[in-house]
Design brief:
The complex is a heterodimer of chains A (about 240) and B (about 230).
Chain A lengths: L3 H7 L19 H26 L4 H16 L2 H9 L6 H5 L3 H4 L2 H26 L3 H9 L4 H31 L11 H12 L3 H29 L9
Chain B lengths: L6 H34 L3 H15 L3 H22 L9 H27 L2 H9 L4 H31 L11 H12 L2 H30 L9
Helix pairs in contact in B: 1-2, 1-4, 1-7, 1-8, 2-4, 3-4, 4-6, 5-6, 6-8, 7-8
Classes of the chains: A mainly alpha (about 240), B mainly alpha (about 230).
């Protein structure tokens, strides 16, 4: 029932080589998925550390807007967020007339924007939660040696919170790997997009989507394994004693 | 007029979104219980099967499953129908969407329920059996009421993710909020406003869900002592 030939023939399409072109000659498929994933995770993480600090701040005017931001972005589907950027921005003449329009009309840029803001919202909450969980002893010790608030944050609280955020963050990374699959709905040829194109060409639903699914599954396992290793390294001090 | 009168149409879509989400939740809860029972059963093949189900489903994006099951399911039905010389019935997109989302979230519910059942002290079930209750009666009278408290936090999370996943069903032709928004945005030329309204409706569903589920959690935690430092 499953046509192996069809899978073998179209295997290169998932790695950027469609219609007989060499593999990696375009950024279709896996490369697109990983570009979207890598860029949005990187930007999202960079955004989320300062946002998490604001989120736990005692100043209401800092904490409240960040709460609202994470609430809105975590409470709505990422597809809606993507469509607001991709379709929505064109409603405003000011946006269309600005220098940024050249970039904002690109599906790729919109996808990066939506994915970044989405993952930043989840990551902010993960990190803020771990900052709040910091053991009071660590903070008292930092104060006792005369660290300023900022120095204490930079040297004690943030590094330890980031380590403890690893298990929850690994879930977020996998959610984002799967989340990028909606990029195909705004014309981008990521893994799912390529599978859809193959389906449209061949009218065979199982082979293309099984291939895409198998690739997602492989990378999900890879990420799980990778984060287990990272946890073994950075959370070793929290593991139950082995001897 | 706001959105040239398209607001009622989007609200209709919201009702369908809720219907899809509710029906999918039902399917996923049933599958979740079956999965959890299999995982906790003494039979190795059942454990293995449930393990395979929950791992493979959770390792692949919803959208890929949706395409595969919707397009693939239609093809399978066509194949079977032609083999028997019958006219192939069209898959109802509502049924397809509900089954697909239910199937996916059944895997998440499996994990939720397995953990919750394991959190109920074993002695409770043993006592029930010692009283001569049948295993089914033990489950409904002893295990189920006590596992709710342990299952609720993760159940709430699954529900919130499930609601947001329903945004994808428009790609298989369901007239949900996203589908109505697509029509509305082309006609009104106000895509930003349209999707903001849709986002607002999703946020409203999320907010009401969180409030209701927190209330439930409090109710089921009645009489449980919280340890404070």
């Amino acid at each position: 029932m499953i046509d192996l030939n069809l899978i073998l023939e179209n295997l290169p399409s998932f790695f950027g080589g469609a219609y007989g072109e060499p593999v990696l000659s375009t950024s279709d498929g896996l490369v697109m998925t990983f570009q979207l994933l890598g860029l949005s995770l990187l930007l999202g993480l960079a955004l989320s550390v300062p946002l998490a600090l604001m989120r736990v701040s005692r100043n209401k005017w800092l904490a409240w807007p960040v709460w609202l931001y994470t609430y809105v972005f975590r409470g709505t589907p990422m597809l809606v967020q993507l469509f607001i950027f991709y379709y929505g921005l064109s409603q405003f003449d000011a946006v269309r007339d600005s220098w940024a329009w050249e970039y904002l009309q690109e599906a790729y840029v919109c996808a990066i924007l939506a994915f970044t803001l989405n993952t930043a919202a989840y990551t902010t909450e993960i990190i803020a939660g771990q900052i709040r969980n910091t053991h009071y002893g660590e903070i008292e010790a930092a104060k006792a040696v005369g660290m300023s608030r900022w120095l204490m944050m930079r040297r004690i609280v943030i590094p330890s919170a980031l380590r403890r955020a690893l298990p929850a963050y690994s879930n977020e990374v996998i959610m984002m790997l799967h989340g990028t699959s909606i990029a195909g709905l705004v014309t981008l040829a990521d893994l799912t997009g390529v599978a859809r194109r193959l389906y449209a060409d061949s009218y065979q639903p199982f082979e293309p989507f099984l291939m895409a699914g198998a690739l997602y599954l492989t990378f999900t396992f890879l990420f799980v394994w990778l984060f287990k290793r990272l946890e073994g390294r950075y959370l070793a001090y929290l593991a139950p004693r082995k001897h | 007029m706001f959105l040239q009168g398209y607001l009622p149409s989007i609200l209709e879509g919201a009702v369908l979104t809720l219907e899809v989400a509710g029906a999918s939740l039902l399917v996923s809860v049933v599958l979740g219980f079956v999965g959890a029972m299999c995982k906790l059963s003494p039979s190795k093949p059942l454990v293995w099967l449930a393990e395979l189900y929950s791992t493979v489903i959770r390792g692949v994006p919803d959208l890929v499953w949706m395409f595969m099951l919707f397009f693939g399911g239609q093809m399978l039905i066509n194949d079977v129908a032609t083999r028997f010389g019958l006219a192939a019935p069209e898959i109802n997109p509502f049924v397809a969407g509900v089954l697909t989302i239910g199937f996916i979230f059944g895997a998440y519910m499996t994990e939720t329920f397995r953990g919750a059942i394991m959190a109920v002290p074993k002695g409770q079930m043993e006592a029930g059996l010692a009283y001569g209750m049948s295993p089914l009666r033990v489950f409904f009278r002893i295990t189920l009421p006590q596992m709710v408290r342990f299952a609720l936090p993760s159940f709430s999370n699954n529900w919130l993710v499930l609601v947001k996943s329903t945004a994808l069903v428009s790609v298989i032709g369901l007239n949900d909020m996203m589908y109505k928004a697509d029509t509305a945005k082309s006609v009104t030329q106000e895509p930003f406003t349209v999707y903001m309204v849709v986002g607002g409706l999703y946020l409203a569903i999320t907010t009401v869900s969180i409030l209701a589920l927190t209330w439930l959690e409090n109710r089921y935690s009645m009489g449980v002592k919280e340890s404070g430092l």
